[in-house]
């Protein structure tokens, strides 16, 4: 990366994103441009592109007609990764991907609110933070139950409704020592402090919203035990709205299918599950009766019993085969269940015959794959019902 610097000195870039986090377009002068692999590394004299840092991904956008795919900070220089060359000394028009940036600011500021409230109310420390493409993940060093997190979520949204101002300042020395703030690292100079009035004070290098009202909505969507604490997933701003809207639309569809009120779908779903459980128990009972009835029709003269199954489970098929073999010790019992066109699953059982030998012959003649013990084998065959019956007749 250092290869982009001219004559061995560092080119300082003015950080416009600290002066105005809502700056979308600006003009700057190209200080240096160097090709690196398939991209160009560009240094500007000033930039509103935020480089990756503080858990927040780098901005994207355009410089002139070229795309900016990544931004990184090296010492005091901010490197823009661009897909085309620029001339040193030229003034260029720059535009950041504002929708992307604003959603990230909503999420990051929302995370500060949640982490600040958890720290203030329960003394928990934020020990891990990741802003993913889909959710924000935060790890805390103490466990919080669902009720505690529900209270935090409510108070976080209350802080949004109250529209607290968000301010930043850079502190060093005694001023920094005198300030109480959250931080994962021991910092001693030029520390950027982000303050959300009455909610949180935290060291952070990322751009944030100007007031909490810009966040709009915070939603905690999951929590799990993690190490000795808790890991939560949350969304904020537009991402939280999109997620909540999807949940609402899904609830509307479910309520329509159940002919229920949207706020009572859980009651109706539980009723459906109860009915399914009752039907399942009835099915199991009827299946057992069917197996017993089928076993009662078996003739002792039938040395090979072949049944083509349409509704029994694998366990019930084994029960049927075991019943046949227990009733007559000199039979080969087989169940074939259609799985696709000209494809069947099979289970064979016998107390007398070596089924490993029979299974090898079955695999060879019916394009099968399977195996097992001498008393029971299973697998699949790619053959028609007529071909299966013809093979089974050879075992008589």
Second rung of CATH, namely the architecture of the largest domain: 2-Layer Sandwich
CATH superfamily of the largest domain: Threonyl-trna Synthetase, Chain A, domain 2
Average pLDDT, rounded to a whole number, is 92
Principal-axes shape call: elongated
CATH topology of the largest domain: Threonyl-tRNA Synthetase, Chain A, domain 2
Into which percent range does the helicity of residues fall? 25-40%
- SS field, number of helical segments: 9
Cα-to-Cα separation, first versus last residue: 79 Å
Please state roughly what percent of the residues sit in beta strands, choosing from under 5%, 5-15%, 15-25%, 25-35%, 35-45% or over 45%: 25-35%
Strand order of the largest sheet: 2-3-7-6-5-8
CATH class of the largest domain: Alpha Beta
Give the low-pLDDT segments.
1-9
The largest sheet, given as strand count, sense and whether it forms a barrel, is:
6 strands, antiparallel, barrel
- By secondary-structure content and strand pairing, the structural class works out as alpha+beta
Number of domains: 4
Gyration radius, to the nearest Å?
A: 34 Å
Number of strands: 20
Order of helices and strands, N to C?
EHEEEEEEEHEEHEHEEEEHHEHEEHEEH
Structure, explained:
The protein has 396 residues and is α+β, with helices and mostly antiparallel strands. It has 4 domains: 2-96, Elongation Factor Tu (Ef-tu), domain 3 (Beta Barrel), CATH 2.40.30; 102-249, Threonyl-tRNA Synthetase, Chain A, domain 2; 260-294; 298-393, Roll (Diaminopimelate Epimerase, Chain A, domain 1). It is built from 9 helices and 20 strands. The strands form 5 sheets. It has a 6-stranded antiparallel beta barrel. Helix 7 (314-327) links the parallel strand 16 and strand 17 (332-340). Helix 6 packs parallel to helix 7 (314-327). It starts with 13 loop residues before the first strand and ends with a helix.
